[in-house]
Structures
1.
Amino acid sequence: MELSLNQATTRPYPLVAIAEAAMRAGIRHIGLWIEPVEEIGMARTKRLLADTGLSVSSVCRAGFVADKEGAELRAAIDGVKRALDLSYDVGSPMLTFIAGGLPAGDRGIRSAELRVRAALEELEPHARAAGVRLALEPLHPLFVGSRSVVTTIAQALRVVAGLPVESVGILIDSYATFWDPNFHDDVAAAGARIAGYQVSDFALPLPTPENMFGRLFPGDGETDFAPLTASIRRAGFTGPVEVEIFNEDIWKLPLETIISRTVDGFKRHVGEPLNELERQPV
Amino acid sequence: MELSLNQATTRPYPLVAIAEAAMRAGIRHIGLWIEPVEEIGMARTKRLLADTGLSVSSVCRAGFVADKEGAELRAAIDGVKRALDLSYDVGSPMLTFIAGGLPAGDRGIRSAELRVRAALEELEPHARAAGVRLALEPLHPLFVGSRSVVTTIAQALRVVAGLPVESVGILIDSYATFWDPNFHDDVAAAGARIAGYQVSDFALPLPTPENMFGRLFPGDGETDFAPLTASIRRAGFTGPVEVEIFNEDIWKLPLETIISRTVDGFKRHVGEPLNELERQPV
């Protein structure tokens, strides 16, 4: 399993500089965000990818449908369609889909889940036509109200159940799910639904006011990545593993430092333990 | 369902002052913490309870066994036994049991769960003899590493499965579980296992450095208490509902203000919606 640098990890830097630094560090995959691609334009993005030899592991992110209705919902759905087209254009196999939080008037999680399901059903033909997989990502329960009513792997599987596995998958992020008492069973059940695997480490305290920004390099927090990664691998996932970190302290570091620490954390806590495991006789 | 004031909500104030203020506010139940009881002594605690007419809904808290072994584990088990005896002495029907976090050397949740189970098995005869129920409380996934490997209702039910329901139950706290996509089904499955129900509200951002201390009065955060409470009631739970809040800003308020806001938040978001529901024809 190879490392992919998710662009968020180096968020303050220009995409061109990130891609070139990643290439120099021997990284072969990148997770792109929509806005920076739009900023430099598709032609320049494609040239950059060709010049650096980077393949795109994912595009982040669209969705946020669970708390919307009417015109707002239509706009969100159209946004996902545009993001699917952009994902196709950059050669990404998938688009990260975030469910969205709970609307003020209805805090019911099951009814919100049905709205997410309805949106995915509507979007699936567009995803299939584009050859880009919608990847529903459970977020940490911290964000159930504000960002994602989908918080567990089992729930994500319930939401996508029955939709074509080629065009709708799930994205498993270690920060969001490492605490889950059913992680290993649910990853096994997910099997071919696993469209992607992202890693970053968790620790308390969370920074305020942005609770989102407490992600750490693998190895700097509470997570034991080896068994998580082993389960993901056993479930059949062989794609690049994205390191995706949101952290204002990390974003203050020089680009090359962020990238070298990403490579190092990934190697020691994700890559090497997995290699060791796979060298063991079955 | 009647309100019980968990002592933590008014933590900086002396137990005697809390109990008398609660009585004056018309509250009939209190959740006690071990340390303040030990501080004023059992005789004085019992006299205070008799004088104020307060019944004890729970004693908080013991456990923290998941990350311990050897002498440390023995000390924790002995601590639970002493807490069970104290609970009996104050007339509490239950003792809150917190699983404990993950030890540095083994971040596996399932193996930690087995240690919690083993401790509960060992403690069950003592609980039965004391006539006090051990109530395993899932905490928010935030605290999986530091405080509780048990984070969901389903997992708590798995840990206590097969142990006598009279002596081992679970405690459901809204702050810890409101986000759970299976809340309603799992509460229904819990049925007579439900030993207690505690409420407080959740909102981001969490305060730092103490992420524990972000609990709010019911109605001040994201939680829709009415459906949660209705499910708890339908599952057969009829005991007092504790308001348990950890919040340094709230602790700075005058005792009477904390109590009147507790009564008000409980009435508007827990008591009245439930009364309304139960007045509706079936």
2.
Amino acid sequence: MPLSKIYKLHISPDREYVKRMRILLGFVPGNLSLYKMAFRHKSMAVVLKNGTKSSNERLEFLGDAVLGSVIAEILFKLYPYKGEGFLTELRSKIVRRANLNQLGRKLGFHELIDFDSKTVNMTTKQSSLLGDAFEALIGAIYLDKGYDFTKSFITNRIIKPHIDIHTLEVTETNFKSKLIEWCQSQSKEITFEPTANAEGDSAKLFSIQVFIGGEAMASATDYSKKNAEKLAAEKTCDMLGI
Amino acid sequence: MPLSKIYKLHISPDREYVKRMRILLGFVPGNLSLYKMAFRHKSMAVVLKNGTKSSNERLEFLGDAVLGSVIAEILFKLYPYKGEGFLTELRSKIVRRANLNQLGRKLGFHELIDFDSKTVNMTTKQSSLLGDAFEALIGAIYLDKGYDFTKSFITNRIIKPHIDIHTLEVTETNFKSKLIEWCQSQSKEITFEPTANAEGDSAKLFSIQVFIGGEAMASATDYSKKNAEKLAAEKTCDMLGI
């Protein structure tokens, strides 16, 4: 870094912010406004001159895509003899909302995210604000430093220290049990209903709709009823961030 | 390219293949085996020493992710004032299976894909083999040349000449009509069924399941019944590659 830039940082009000980011990320951020944007929840959106609101949602869209691509490559190379079904399932285990929320909390994002505490609740263990900010941060790093840099950030600062891929590979989360337990803890009734015609003789596929407290949640379709229930439960867990 | 490499290509049996690829791609491929793999349908899978089968399915997994990431960035930059909902929808319009199939046909993939014509039908206008091979090709280019190269390939050789983003932006495909027409042409009965409880008073969400000839197809859930039907129709169109 040129001396003039170091000097500017030392006299800038951003000095503390840069220091904090450097500790979090392991590198000195270039375009600070991107990182500030990544931690701005929509409840604190800034209104731009043309009237649109600016928060971390657009960066989240970009970061989600970049993260998906980087994880795809990591798994592609880590498992050279596994088929695409295996790779797809393992990737979705890694990037599950609940995992990204946990990761965000581990990284201390709850102290960094700029949100309106009057309207938003971040006290629940699994606030989706954390996972959203994580994806937005990946988007910010990508725009600031490029793809290869982001790939090594994800590999070395996220995957290696925080995610045990081989354990995830063999761990089969029972989403149906998880969801039922959650509903019990919330005193809510849960049912798994087959859809209207799916039980007829002609149907080869089973469709299952989850209802919690009478409210329709996710649905899923599969050739086995058990699998359709499992998939619908998983989608519902994702919707609820549990 | 060093002279020795040019010489090697000229005496190699791959000479014609390289020439063909150079015309298709606009660049000289490096690792030819990747490109050959991208055009190998699973009906012609090669059995590896360890017993696993090798076709373009793994490259398709990787290419799908890289394509999603590149398109995300293109839209992010093209529409600086649009929200993530708009960006997500527009991206899904661009990467719809039917679009990628058309693109594959335009690029002449039907003459390049190595498939078993006894078991696979590529005569239908929208064979999904084409879109699959397109995604696999993106995976091959990424592994051969890196992310930035792949990004400019997608931007300059795919998006600019073949995809009119602004038209897609304003075009609202009526998937329900499209699906109904297709069913009529196939003499198949189609119904849109609300799921078991979704019509109850307590349900805030509507869930719709599509059935074609009594067989359950895709389902979708939304706050409006019309939208749930539209989404379920779109998912079914994607499943059928229409």
